[in-house]
Amino acid sequence: MRDVVRTNYHWYMLFEYVNGGQMLDYIISHGKLKEKQARKFSRQIASALDYCHRNSIVHRDLKIENILISKNGDIKIIDFGLSNLFAPRGHLKTFCGSLYFAAP
């Protein structure tokens, strides 16, 4: 998120424009990832999740459709609509997210 603007009646959230597409579309159009590309994407996803977790945020719906790839190959994680704050020693009590992407 780049900025939040509040008027008398509305809140506006301004986000970065990502000029690529979903990771799913990238894989469909480019075929399977080569190891070097998969490592780059994996590092960026892990780094983004580490940043969130260090700031007590859990995404709760991470899936291939919620990962964008910019034209220059950078990963952006989107759709934090189900995200939540967590306490380091606590547990979240609700289940949410996409069933097919949930941990067993």
Automatic annotation (TrEMBL):
<keyword id="KW-0067">ATP-binding</keyword>
<protein>
    <recommendedName>
        <fullName>Protein kinase domain-containing protein</fullName>
    </recommendedName>
</protein>
<feature type="domain" description="Protein kinase">
    <location>
        <begin position="1"/>
        <end position="104"/>
    </location>
</feature>
<dbReference type="GO" id="GO:0005737">
    <property type="term" value="C:cytoplasm"/>
</dbReference>
<dbReference type="GO" id="GO:0035556">
    <property type="term" value="P:intracellular signal transduction"/>
</dbReference>
<dbReference type="InterPro" id="IPR000719">
    <property type="entry name" value="Prot_kinase_dom"/>
</dbReference>
<dbReference type="GO" id="GO:0000226">
    <property type="term" value="P:microtubule cytoskeleton organization"/>
</dbReference>
<keyword id="KW-0547">Nucleotide-binding</keyword>
<dbReference type="InterPro" id="IPR008271">
    <property type="entry name" value="Ser/Thr_kinase_AS"/>
</dbReference>
<dbReference type="Pfam" id="PF00069">
    <property type="entry name" value="Pkinase"/>
</dbReference>
<keyword id="KW-0808">Transferase</keyword>
<keyword id="KW-0723">Serine/threonine-protein kinase</keyword>
<dbReference type="GO" id="GO:0005524">
    <property type="term" value="F:ATP binding"/>
</dbReference>
<dbReference type="GO" id="GO:0004674">
    <property type="term" value="F:protein serine/threonine kinase activity"/>
</dbReference>
<comment type="similarity">
    <text>Belongs to the protein kinase superfamily. CAMK Ser/Thr protein kinase family. NIM1 subfamily.</text>
</comment>
<keyword id="KW-0418">Kinase</keyword>
<dbReference type="InterPro" id="IPR011009">
    <property type="entry name" value="Kinase-like_dom_sf"/>
</dbReference>
